[in-house]
Write a structure and sequence with these properties.
The structure is a single chain. The chain has one domain. The chain has 6 helices and no strands. By secondary structure, it is mostly helical.
């Protein structure tokens, strides 16, 4: 039997509100939703790691904004963004965030615009 532990984390207020709506509509709890998603992420990652397949890690890095799309496509041996996004959906990963450097560059460009 698995032992549970409490932990403290932070989540976007709007995201939590939306998660509560989903939990209510599906007669479950936010905790159960979180556990199911985290379990899927961990088990998928571990299975890929055991088999020596790095594709999930590449997709996860892309999803978390640690890797650019062109780098992920090259590592996966694909040549279309459509295929990349299909793989993201199949891997049950959220769509990517821009890498931090790209986001900062965009913000700096916006700040440099004349008012």
């Amino acid at each position: 039997m698995a032992t549970t532990v409490n932990f403290t984390g932070a989540v976007d207020r709007d995201l939590l509100k939306r998660a509560k709506v989903i939990a209510a509509k599906t007669d479950t709890s936010v905790n159960a939703l979180f556990n199911a998603e985290l379990r899927h992420l961990v088990e998928t990652f571990e299975a890929a790691e055991i088999s020596g397949n790095q594709n999930f890690r590449v997709l996860l890095d892309f999803s978390l904004g640690r890797s650019a799309g062109d780098k992920a496509m090259h590592a996966l041996g694909i040549d279309s963004e459509e295929d990349l996004f299909l793989l993201m959906a199949q891997a049950h990963l959220p769509m990517p965030r821009l890498p931090g450097a790209d986001t900062r560059s965009m913000v700096d460009s916006l700040h440099a615009l004349p008012s």
